[in-house]
Every structure is written in structure tokens, then in C-alpha cells.
UniProtKB/TrEMBL annotation:
The keyword Secreted does not apply. Residues 364-465, 488-607 form the Cyclic nucleotide-binding domain. The keyword Transport applies. Pfam families: cNMP_binding, Fer4_11, Pyr_redox_3. Residues 645-677, 682-713, 714-742, 779-812 form the 4Fe-4S ferredoxin-type domain. This is Oxidoreductase. PANTHER family: DIMETHYLSULFOXIDE REDUCTASE CHAIN B, OXIDOREDUCTASE. GO terms for molecular function: 4 iron, 4 sulfur cluster binding; metal ion binding. Keywords: 4Fe-4S, Electron transport, Iron, Iron-sulfur, Metal-binding, Transport. CDD domains: CAP_ED, DMSOR_beta_like. It comes from the Bacteria. The lineage of its organism: Bacteria, Pseudomonadati, Pseudomonadota, Alphaproteobacteria, Sphingomonadales. Signal peptide: none annotated. SMART domains: cNMP (SM00100).
Length: 824
């Protein structure tokens, strides 16, 4: 074997294999080549092995996941601290007589299979029959994209978290690296750091479950501030301006650690003649099952292949050298796991045949490499259904995504008539509504013929969408198409809305950001996909609230249809998403579909009547309209902007009897779900502390047992699987969730009335609960309003109000100046 060379002395000018990059994948490849006696050189651009691991923060715990995967490598790897892992590899590299050349950065690869020429940065060259690129992506981090992103207190690497003392530090990004950095900075309270971590979404799609659990525990202990649905808007010296779901906010910030992912060094790879799966920046190279690229003789492994986990990388390093050595019978290490998974399906296909079928037939998989598909399938399930069998039933709990590999399904869109169905063909997906919204299944879906589906768990689907831009685009396009068909109705088909879907763009708005301005020209219409909008007009020099638009509504069609200017200003009540549709395509659709045209004109006429009502009375009734506008704005500011059902109390009618609280407690095991006196008031309207049943519930964002669900009527409830972790209570911005243990069962109301037994109506006192508790107190669980689901007559708080002061309403039914017009 060729001996170990610290500086590259003695490295041959021509080798069988040139391995570029000494991370886990490259190191493992070199170890296998050395063991097999194949001439090789490991080229490392720094002066040490495995720069990615080397740059991990000091003391970082390195995970060895997935645990079910067997490790194939001539190097050992077990979970442990960074220093321990690196020390083991350095010892084994020396003992294994690996040929390594440090400070050897490759700048160009020329030639062809069997005769490649690699040019180094120092001008030197070497020849190789085959090249293995194991260069990773860490040297190409995604930079912050906001004003002030070039300021010096932003860093993209954290070496030693113990170096920082008494600083306000913000970590941007909640992948594994960001979470681990935040935990390291907050590990020792004596350092005095105030650590905040920003999560763009409400879930942790890119992070390992173990890291999410540790972050949740740190948040509960007050060591780390976790801010979901928050992004940087502007970096200033000593400050960071944030875009939150409720608007902009400025916090103190002495240092920013940006861990927003990285992308392949695309220019270098493409200059080598290697094609990528798609044009997106984060796409990966096209690879064969033996890791060969579109440039014959050049192979890609590790993170550059889309496999960031260390164990995967090391297995690939081992496998690719075996392939180059002529071992055509070698199967990947995950083969037994996948073979067992596919064994449940009809037919006798091999793992490779199944993966080929899934990758070629299912649209969301077409731009995913076979290697990425293998990893995705480890976290997914497969199932077969006979014709007529239900994949899932209406109102079932479920947030997984299904992809049709063979056959088709029928969606029962009418709950009263199962014969009315809409088909979904082979290659498409279904279940995306549960994935995006967390709602229960909205329809029963049956196999229209013998069926084979892939079921992606929520975490697997979100990870796929986060790491495979092309797949995310497909899911996005299909969800937009189905939303258009649902909103516009009128017997439209996929073909009818194809032009609109092709021209659609998803646009994100921060709270209070203007979507369209009164008086502007309008060329597009918008569908509210997530969040809500406020519609207002300027009267007497100030904005007057006209209406509230919830998710699912559309706006802007008036100016598009009749060519007029925007008649009102529309702005986001909270952080929202809209779908922008090209106006010209919408007009063409109306011309082709008279029924839709009539529907659109009726809606337009209704809005004109409201505008005319306001215009005609702006002088005589300006004070009334102004009071209404202020009241509506107060309600939006207090969470009505993202509610689907909210409890309001008219204080001109409320007599303070507390029957609402007592009835709530008596309907829910003695624990009231509302606090009548708490909350805020404007004029005569009081918003008590009670669940708003948000359109996208914050409480659902991080529930380990998935105990928080949405019912068929929109109610958000917590089932018996709650483990009392308290995440939902911490994530709720309105303080409507409490942690408590269910009290002992009370005697009946008659026993209390006639025999004096029990604490009486409502929630029992703590003294009574303690006195009548049987043994140890029951563990605490999350308690919140469930809209009295399953109780005849609807919410008990409303039914128990003797004066009619308590009402439960959807915001779109309440927040509209049309109510003034109707009441005139």
C-alpha cells in the first residue's frame, strides 16, 4: 500500500482514483481504496482531515443516525463528541496507510474516463482514471438576504460557543446546525448569553427529532427563546428588525449566527460537465445507482449527492470504491430495510425496480435522484388497496401525504352522496390539505382500481419539500389547482384552470403589508391562501375598515373585470400568503364559462353596493362608520385576524353571573376552558380568554404525540394522547391553554342541591380537589376550548348565557361593514 503522507510527498502523478474532499464520505472512500490496494490520493484543500466535522462547534455531540442502518466502512463511527470522532479517524487514517495531500484545492477537472487531469490551485496537476467528488456543501452557505446583511457581526460558523459572554445572540435557522449552535451558546447560564433562535415556519422540517426535543426542553427551561414564523427584516448595529406574524419588531442583537443551509458549489460542478436535477440553487447532481454523474468516470457522494447524514456518507464512500473495483453485486446498506418494506406490495419486483417505478411514475419524485429517493423511502410507507377500499375516510385524523404509484383514486366530494366523485390519476398526490393545514381529512378517498400508494409522513413530506425545490413546486402547483377548483366551482375542470395555475405565484406578506392600494391600477386577482386580509377605504382623510377576508376568499377581480382602479386598500391582518393570478387569464376564463362569469358579477355587484353605502353616508354617518372601523381593528389586533371561531361578550348585556364559565366547567370534567374576566375590551365588546380556533393553530406547531387535531367543524381540540409537555401552551400567543390535572368526579347537581354533596356548579376549588383526590394527583394535561364538540346544542358557554351576551362567531361573518348596510 502507499504510505501515509502528511504533505503529499511521494504521491504518484497518476492514480487509479482521485478523491476530492476528506469529509466522512471521502475519508471512507480512501479507506476502502487503501484496504483493496487501489492506488489513490485523497485531496484536501485545508491542512486537516474532515473540515466539515472539524468546523463543528467545540464539544458538539455528533449523532450516528439512522440507528437502523448498518455502517459499512473501514473507519469506525459511533455517536460521540466532535473531538472523539476526529481523533478516532486520524488514528485510523494513519494506521490504514491512506495517501492524503493537504492544501490541495482542485480548481479544474479535464479529460475523460480513464484519463482525467486535475488542476490544483497551486498550479500542480495529477492524473486519475476515476474521480470521486466528496466535497460537501458547507463551503457555500446561504447568505442572509435582507438590508444590513453585510455587517461584520454576522457570522456563518460557530467554532466555540464558550467564547461568548453576556451577549444577545440570535441564531437564524432551525436545521440541526442552528439548533445545536443555539443550545451550545445557552448551555452554561454563567455565560450570561441571551440566545434567540428564529424559525421561518412553525415546524422544524430540517432537524432531527432528538435536536427538536432538546430545543423544546431548553425553551421550557428559559435558556433559549424560540421565535416561530419569524425572519430577519433588517440588520443594524446592535439591533435586529424582525418580520413576525404580527408585524415588525426590533430586538437587541450583538451577534448573529446565520445557519440557513448551504448549496452545492454549482459552478465548479457544472464546469466539470455534470448536470443537475433542476435549475434551483439547492438542487443536486444527476446520479446513477453507482453514484456516477452525467460525466462518465466522475462520481459524487456524500452531502453533494443529497445525503447529509454521516453514516450515509461513509457507506457511500465504501460502496463507490467497491463499484469501481468491479463489485457489481454489492447492494446498498439500506437494501434489507427497503426490501422488507416493499415485500408487502403485490408483484415480485426488486428494490431497484420499485424505486425505478416510483421515480418514473410519481411526479413529486421525478427530479429526485435515486439516492435521495432511497433515503426518503426509509421514512415513508407503502401500501396496496383493492378496488373500492378506502385509503382514508372523511373526518379521519391524518396529516400524511399520499402519492399514487399505480392505479387511481376517487374522491367522494359530497358527504351525502358517495356516488359524486372526482378522480385523481396515477402519478399525482392526495392528502395535501391535511399536510398543509393540519385539518382532518376533508373527504373519503377510495381506490378506483387496484392501487399502490406511497405514504409520506408529515415530517418526511416537509423535509422533502424543504430539500427538494422541484418536489415542493409540484406539491404547490397541485394544491393551487385544487384550491382554484374549490373556490370557483361552477363545474370547472383541471383543463379550465390550467392557464391560471401556470401563471400563479405564491406571495408572502408580513402583517400590515399592503397587497393592493386604493386608486391603483389592477392587473391581477388574489386568493388568500393563508392568514387574512383587511379591506379599507379612505374617508375623510383616514382609513375606514370595510371588511375582513379569511383564507379561501379572493379579491381584486373588480378592477380586472371592468378595468377600473382599485376601489379599496387591502392589507394583511397577520402574516399571510396569497396566490397571485394573472388577470388576463382570469378574464379569458370568464368568457369561456358563463356560469362563473355570473357568479363573479354577482359578487362584484355586492361589493359595489357596500362601497355605495359607505360613500352615500360618509358625511352623515362618518362617526358610526369610524366607531365600527375602530372596533373591527381592535378585534383584528386581538387575534380575530387568524381565528375561525371566537367568543365575544357584549358588555351592555352581560350581568356578570359567570354562568358561561360554570357551564364550560360542567361540560368538561370540572375544568373551565374560558376566563370571562380576563382578556381585553373595546367599547362594549369584550374578548375573553378562550380559544380562537386559529386557521393555522400555533399550538399544533410542536406537539410530540400529535395530540392536537382539528375537527370536522373547524374546532381545534386536544385528545387523550397528550403527554403534558406544555409546548402548546408556550406556542399559543393568546394565553388560552392551561396545564392542569383533571379533578375527581363531582357528585351530581341534584346531590349538591338536596344533599349538600360536592362543590356545586362550575370548577371545584383547589381545596376540594385536594381533599377528594384519590392517591397521587393525576398528571397535568393541556386544557383548552374544543367548542363543546360532541355535545348537543353547541357551545355550552353560549347556551348558558341568560341575556344573550355571549356569542361565538366566525370573523368573516362578523367583521364587515355590510352588516351596517343590512341593518339599516
Amino acid at each position: 500500500m502507499i504510505g501515509w503522507h502528511g504533505k503529499g510527498e511521494g504521491v504518484k502523478d497518476r492514480v487509479r482514483i482521485a478523491i476530492v474532499g476528506s469529509g466522512p464520505a471521502g475519508l471512507s472512500a480512501a479507506g476502502r481504496a487503501a484496504r483493496l490496494g487501489m492506488s489513490h490520493v485523497l485531496l484536501e484543500k485545508t491542512d486537516h482531515l474532515s473540515d466539515t466535522i472539524f468546523k463543528y462547534q467545540k464539544g458538539k455531540h455528533v449523532m450516528a443516525t439512522p440507528s437502523s442502518l448498518v455502517l459499512r466502512s473501514d473507519f469506525d463511527f459511533d455517536a460521540g463528541k466532535r473531538e472523539q470522532v476526529l481523533g478516532t479517524w486520524e488514528e485510523q487514517a494513519a494506521a490504514g496507510a491512506i495517501t492524503v495531500r493537504y492544501n490541495a484545492e482542485v480548481t479544474r477537472i479535464e479529460g475523460e474516463k480513464g484519463a482525467f487531469v486535475l488542476t490544483l490551485k497551486d498550479g500542480g496537476t495529477l492524473e486519475a482514471e476515476a474521480v470521486i467528488l466528496a466535497i460537501g456543501t458547507q463551503g457555500n452557505p446561504n447568505k442572509l438576504r435582507c438590508e444590513g446583511a453585510d455587517l461584520p457581526h454576522i457570522q456563518y460558523q460557530l467554532d466555540d460557543p464558550t467564547e461568548y459572554i453576556d451577549e444577545h445572540i440570535t441564531v437564524v435557522g432551525t436545521g440541526d446546525a442552528g439548533i445545536e449552535n443555539a443550545l451550545g451558546l445557552a448551555a452554561d447560564p454563567a455565560q450570561g448569553n441571551v440566545v434567540t433562535i428564529l424559525n421561518r415556519g412553525a415546524e422544524f422540517a430540517r432537524a432531527k427529532e432528538a435536536n427538536v426535543k432538546l430545543l423544546t426542553e431548553a425553551q421550557a427551561a428559559g435558556r433559549v427563546i424560540v421565535r416561530n414564523e419569524t425572519t430577519p427584516a433588517e440588520v443594524r448595529p446592535g439591533q435586529l428588525v424582525l418580520d413576525t406574524r404580527d408585524g415588525q419588531e426590533t430586538i437587541r442583537c450583538d451577534r448573529i449566527i446565520a445557519r440557513t443551509g448551504s448549496a452545492p458549489p454549482r459552478k465548479f460542478v457544472e464546469d466539470c460537465g455534470i448536470a443537475f436535477t433542476s435549475p434551483e440553487r439547492e438542487a443536486f447532481p444527476v446520479l446513477s445507482p453507482v453514484f456516477e454523474t452525467t460525466r462518465p468516470g466522475i462520481h459524487v457522494i456524500g452531502a453533494l449527492a443529497g445525503y447529509p447524514l454521516i453514516k450515509h456518507c461513509m457507506n457511500q464512500g465504501y460502496d463507490v470504491v467497491e463499484f469501481l473495483n468491479g463489485n457489481t453485486r454489492l447492494k446498498p446498506a439500506d437494501e434489507p430495510i427497503l426490501a422488507e418494506k416493499f415485500a408487502a406490495l403485490p408483484g415480485s419486483r426488486s428494490v431497484d425496480e420499485w424505486l425505478e417505478l416510483l421515480g418514473s411514475r410519481i411526479e413529486i419524485f421525478r427530479d429526485i435522484s435515486p439516492l435521495q429517493l432511497r433515503e426518503l423511502m426509509l421514512d415513508s410507507g407503502v401500501a396496496a388497496f383493492r378496488k373500492g377500499e378506502a385509503v382514508f375516510e372523511r373526518n379521519e385524523i391524518g396529516s400524511s401525504l399520499f402519492a399514487i404509484a399505480e392505479g387511481s383514486v376517487a374522491v367522494e366530494v359530497n358527504k351525502d352522496d358517495p356516488s359524486i366523485t372526482v378522480p385523481i390519476a396515477q402519478g399525482s398526490i392526495f392528502g395535501e390539505v391535511g399536510l398543509i393545514s393540519g385539518r382532518r381529512r376533508g373527504a373519503t378517498i377510495r381506490a378506483a382500481e387496484d392501487l399502490i400508494v406511497v405514504e409520506l409522513s408529515r415530517s418526511a413530506a416537509l423535509k422533502m419539500m424543504a430539500t427538494a425545490p422541484a418536489a415542493a413546486k409540484v406539491v404547490n402547483r397541485i394544491s393551487i389547482e385544487r384550491q382554484l377548483l374549490q373556490i370557483f366551482g361552477s363545474g370547472l375542470t383541471r383543463e379550465d384552470v390550467a392557464e391560471l395555475v401556470d401563471g400563479a405565484e405564491v406571495q408572502e406578506l408580513r402583517a400590515n403589508e399592503v397587497l393592493m392600494k386604493e386608486g391603483d391600477e389592477g392587473a391581477d386577482i388574489f386568493i388568500i391562501r393563508r392568514g387574512s386580509m383587511i379591506v379599507e377605504r379612505e374617508i375623510g382623510g383616514k382609513p375606514v375598515f370595510l371588511s375582513y377576508l379569511a383564507a379561501g376568499a379572493y379579491v381584486g377581480e373588480m378592477a380586472v373585470i371592468d378595468g377600473s382602479r382599485r376601489s379599496a386598500t387591502v392589507r394583511a391582518a397577520i402574516k399571510s400568503e396569497v396566490i397571485r393570478l394573472p388577470g388576463e387569464a382570469f378574464v379569458r376564463l370568464l368568457e369561456r364559462k358563463p356560469q362563473l362569469r355570473r357568479k363573479a358579477f354577482e359578487e362584484m355587484e355586492r361589493r359595489r353596493e357596500i362601497n355605495a353605502f359607505v360613500e352615500g353616508r360618509k358625511e352623515n354617518f362618518s362617526s358610526v362608520v369610524d366607531m365600527y372601523s375602530q372596533t373591527a381593528q381592535f378585534l383584528v389586533d386581538n387575534g380575530i385576524g387568524e381565528a375561525t371561531d371566537v367568543l365575544l361578550i357584549d358588555e351592555t348585556l352581560c350581568v356578570g353571573c359567570d354562568n358561561c364559565e360554570k357551564a364550560c366547567a360542567d361540560s368538561h370534567d370540572g375544568l373551565s376552558r374560558l376566563d370571562r374576566e380576563a382578556g381585553t375590551t373595546y367599547a362594549h365588546l369584550h374578548v375573553p380568554t378562550s380559544c380562537r380556533h386559529c386557521e393555522h393553530p400555533h399550538c399544533m406547531a410542536d406537539c410530540p404525540p400529535n395530540a392536537i387535531q382539528r375537527g370536522p367543524d373547524g374546532e381545534v381540540f386536544i385528545d387523550e394522547t397528550c403527554i403534558g409537555c406544555g409546548n402548546c401552551q408556550r406556542n399559543c400567543p393568546y394565553g388560552v391553554i392551561r396545564m392542569d390535572s383533571v379533578p375527581p368526579k363531582k357528585p351530581s347537581i341534584l346531590s349538591w342541591l338536596f344533599l349538600g354533596k360536592g362543590p356545586g356548579p362550575g370548577e371545584p376549588s383547589k381545596d376540594w380537589r385536594k381533599k377528594h383526590a384519590e392517591g397521587a394527583e393525576k398528571p397535568k394535561q393541556a386544557i383548552k376550548c374544543d367548542m363543546c364538540a360532541g355535545i348537543d346544542g353547541g357551545p355550552s358557554c353560549v347556551r348558558a348565557c341568560p341575556t344573550g351576551a355571549a356569542i361565538r362567531v366566525s370573523p368573516e361573518a362578523f367583521l364587515s361593514v355590510a352588516k351596517l348596510a343590512e341593518g339599516e
